[in-house]
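Consider the following assembly input.
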Amino acid sequence: MAAWARAVRGLLLDVSGVLYDSGGEGGGVPIAGSVEAVRRIKAAGLKLQFCTNETQATREKFVKKLQGMGFDISMAEVTAPAPAACRILKERSLRPHLLVHNDLVPEFAEIDKTNPNCVVIGDAAENFTYANLNEAFRVLIGMEKPVLISLGRGRYYKETDGLKLDVGAYMKALEYACDVEAEVVGKPAKMFFESALAEMGVPPQQAIMIGDDIVSDVGGAQRCGMRALQVRTGKYRQEVNGSSSSSSSPNSRRQPRTLKDTEVMLRGSGAACERWKHLFFRAISWLLSCTAPLGDNRLKQARN
Amino acid sequence: MAAWARAVRGLLLDVSGVLYDSGGEGGGVPIAGSVEAVRRIKAAGLKLQFCTNETQATREKFVKKLQGMGFDISMAEVTAPAPAACRILKERSLRPHLLVHNDLVPEFAEIDKTNPNCVVIGDAAENFTYANLNEAFRVLIGMEKPVLISLGRGRYYKETDGLKLDVGAYMKALEYACDVEAEVVGKPAKMFFESALAEMGVPPQQAIMIGDDIVSDVGGAQRCGMRALQVRTGKYRQEVNGSSSSSSSPNSRRQPRTLKDTEVMLRGSGAACERWKHLFFRAISWLLSCTAPLGDNRLKQARN
């Protein structure tokens, strides 16, 4: 067993596409087995932080929605872009023009928004109207040095009724129109992962990130010095992730498909209670020996 | 007088921002002096082609609108992206999903649009809704090899009520989300300028492009072997175009600000009728000696 595996003390979990698929009237549906998997991970005594780029609601509403689905989750366990952005805005005396989801606006309640000197863009969904995007563009193009802060840079995500464009696509539109590079708050920014790790009090070498996004989750965590696993739920698309993940691959049966699979593999099925800890770390070691870190080429090829 | 100046036989004119500012109830307002300038250019016996990325209307409607403003313009004198795109679609048996302005749809009347195998995006304006952009994205992401055809790649343009995002911004959003590079039909594509020159029967060395866009008009024409002039109407923004264009520059008074100024300078004020042709070419020579071709650096710096 690798030395580092003995030392694993914390897990970072992506939320949308790992715990649940968002969208629909109830705000989404849990992915089979994920509620139980979170419960078991916590019962094993591991530190856990939910590391999400979700910006369609305040953390409070977001947590309540997940609790309503049965997840054992609290506000303090969630690392999200909006609070991180608020810290940056205060530090740099920036007054944002907001292009975000209506339900996220309360996160910025204490921020001065008069006479904007930057634009903050999040996953605004239905608020991504032609008029609203033009308004954000005019604020930016009117600045001597445009400042664009983006809450994530995701390309798309999966809702119950299909794939949807994420904030990254609209960020690119504004970047191009104003010839500016956005400052990204949220995954895959290194500072964002570091903030989640600090919340757990666990160094990167002792943590694993589990997500469905090959760039924002897996790539971002690896650049931060963590190990990472990609589940096959959410936005996972086989053709994007290369032949090594295909169902005909000898390795494919060893790779977790859902958070539930991951938790079961981590736990080690059939382990007696008294041997649980020992088998758990053996399972992690075995699992990660089959999951080589992703090379730069694969990351570049990945679309989402 | 430079040898090439003696040989100038044709002018390519951008339309929006040079002839008129679009937008508002009447569809736009002419820029002062531009109606008369077009009349005089034609009267001088020069070949003239209107080279536009306008995709908010069919050529027929577009020409009628401009005629209504008093411009001497006909269908055959307009080179626009939609007819060029239709030729490409037919040649390659492509069936488009259209994300364009409602008024442009008739241009594609003869194109098979069932079971789409590509997406054509134009300046859809109010049709750039979150739902419509998601729909175009889903069509693209569902293809094995996504084909995205963009009617221009402009960043923004000026309407009577201010600057508006152009098709290029939305093209970039889809490019990023689907990890695809769009095929651009329209300025600054070389083929587009060549098509306009062919329509006039004038080689690039004997033509001048006049526009307000430093990249699409000036850069595109120069890459095609033409000379180009940038007017200071439309989307022209002084801070984007460098200090050489500032009002304090010794050269600034020599540079044309509007199409009218350009035409007056080309014509040579006070020239007697019998000396008109001679003075006209002297004016072109003098004007262009003050307007060095733009280097790559300036093009890169330019935002629009």
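The first strand of chain B starts at residue 10 and ends at 13. Ask yourself how this observation constrains the way the partners meet.
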